[in-house]
């Protein structure tokens, strides 16, 4: 009672508490006890004040928790509406950033993308190891495919190289066969020309011989006729003696001379010691030394000394013949020379 009188001037001591009536009753009981025992007013008032502060603190904590709960619900609602990733509408693959979207668009050619609220979960250690294993297997598979492709490419290149070599060999063989055929045809044509030239010469010779014999036969017939006339005149004495006319046989017989054809060039076929032939045309007035120089520059049978000869008729040319013209050696219009060992 004394404590109440001492604190009667403080505000709110006599006012009742609206929030909790039971608290007021407890205060009154405590006040009565204080009247009976005035030595304990301050000690009994301290627990009461601490209880009041605890109630206020709990109400403030409840308000704070409700505020936090409301904020978390709002954040969850806003997070549920916010885009957390990007998704390809064509293949359904999700991406974290626009760089990954651009890379995927360039690589796959997809153009349709949209935002997604699903968050791409971070990879765990097991997922990382699994992706690393798959990546290593893919790299290994690509390396094997590249090696297989390189082997196939090497085999194809080797086939092409062999085919090109075979084609080149066949082309060389064909060229050699054509060259052999050309040389054989040229040789056959030269032989035919030589044979025709001999036939022409033989025909001309025979014609000349026939003409000469025909002239001689005609002169012999005329002489016989003239002798027969003289014999008849002498037998019948029909006229004065006639002096014997000079016999036609006493007159020189003029033979028909066929002019020879003049050649300005000479075609020579040269047979080397290895069986190959050289063919070239030379001037009729060129010396045999020019032919020898041509052989030395174009021969394929080595560089050994050699001599030149003809087989029909057989003639071996000496060093003195090297300065003579081909026309003087009887090699015009064509001839065949053979390269032999020095003799």
- Principal-axis shape: rod-shaped
Largest sheet: 5 strands, mixed
Structural class: alpha+beta
Mean pLDDT: 75
**Strand and helix order:** HHHEEHEHEEHEEE
Strand arrangement, major sheet: 5-4-8-6-7
CA-CA gap between termini: 173 Å
Low-pLDDT runs: 1-27, 29-46, 244-253
> What portion of residues belong to β-strands?
5-15%
- In helices, the fraction of residues equals 55-70%
Q: Number of DSSP helices?
A: 6
Number of beta strands: 8
Rg value: 71 Å
Molecular structure report:
It is built from 6 helices and 8 strands; from the N terminus they run H-H-H-E-E-H-E-H-E-E-H-E-E-E. 3% of the residues are buried. A hairpin with a 5-residue loop joins strand 4 and strand 5. The strands form 2 sheets. It has a 5-stranded mixed beta sheet, with helices on both faces. The protein is α+β, with helices and mostly antiparallel strands and 343 residues long. The chain has helices spanning 2-6, 21-36, 41-81, 98-108, 125-236, 288-298, and strands at residues 85-88, 94-95, 113-116, 265-271, 277-283, 307-311, 314-316, 334-340.
Provide key terms for this protein.
single chain; alpha+beta; five-stranded mixed beta sheet; three-stranded antiparallel beta sheet; 6 helices
Q: How are the elements arranged and paired?
A:
Layout: H1 2-6, H2 21-36, H3 41-81, E1 85-88, E2 94-95, H4 98-108, E3 113-116, H5 125-236, E4 265-271, E5 277-283, H6 288-298, E6 307-311, E7 314-316, E8 334-340
Helix pairs in contact: 2-3
């Amino acid at each position: 009672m004394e404590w109440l009188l001492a604190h009667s001037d403080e505000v709110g001591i006599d006012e009742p508490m609206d929030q909790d009536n039971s608290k007021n009753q407890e205060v009154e009981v405590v006040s009565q006890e204080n009247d009976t025992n005035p030595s304990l007013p301050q000690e009994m008032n301290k627990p009461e004040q601490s209880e009041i502060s605890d109630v206020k603190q709990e109400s403030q904590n409840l308000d704070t928790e409700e505020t936090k709960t409301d904020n978390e619900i709002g954040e969850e609602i806003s997070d549920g509406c916010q885009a957390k990733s990007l998704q390809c509408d064509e293949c359904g693959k999700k991406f974290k950033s626009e760089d990954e979207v651009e890379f995927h668009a360039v690589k796959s050619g997809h153009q349709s993308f949209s935002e997604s609220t699903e968050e791409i979960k971070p990879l765990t250690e097991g997922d990382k190891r699994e992706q690393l294993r798959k990546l290593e297997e893919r790299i290994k598979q690509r390396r094997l495919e590249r090696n297989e492709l390189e082997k196939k490419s090497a085999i194809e290149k080797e086939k092409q190289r062999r085919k090109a070599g075979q084609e080149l060999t066949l082309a060389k063989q064909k060229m050699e066969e054509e060259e052999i055929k050309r040389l054989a045809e040229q040789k056959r044509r030269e032989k035919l020309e030589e044979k025709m030239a001999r036939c022409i010469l033989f025909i001309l010779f025979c014609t000349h011989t026939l003409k000469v014999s025909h002239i001689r036969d005609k002169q012999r017939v005329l002489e016989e006729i003239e002798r027969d006339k003289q014999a008849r005149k002498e037998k019948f004495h029909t006229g004065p003696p006639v002096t014997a006319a000079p016999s036609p046989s006493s007159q020189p017989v003029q033979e028909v001379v066929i002019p020879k054809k003049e050649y300005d060039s000479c075609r020579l076929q040269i047979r080397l010691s290895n069986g190959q032939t050289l063919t070239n045309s030379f001037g009729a007035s060129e010396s045999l030394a020019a032919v020898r120089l041509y052989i030395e520059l174009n021969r394929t049978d080595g560089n050994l000394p050699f001599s030149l000869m003809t087989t029909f008729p057989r003639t071996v040319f000496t060093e003195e013949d090297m300065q003579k013209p081909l026309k003087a050696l009887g090699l015009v219009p064509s001839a065949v020379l053979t390269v032999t060992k020095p003799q």
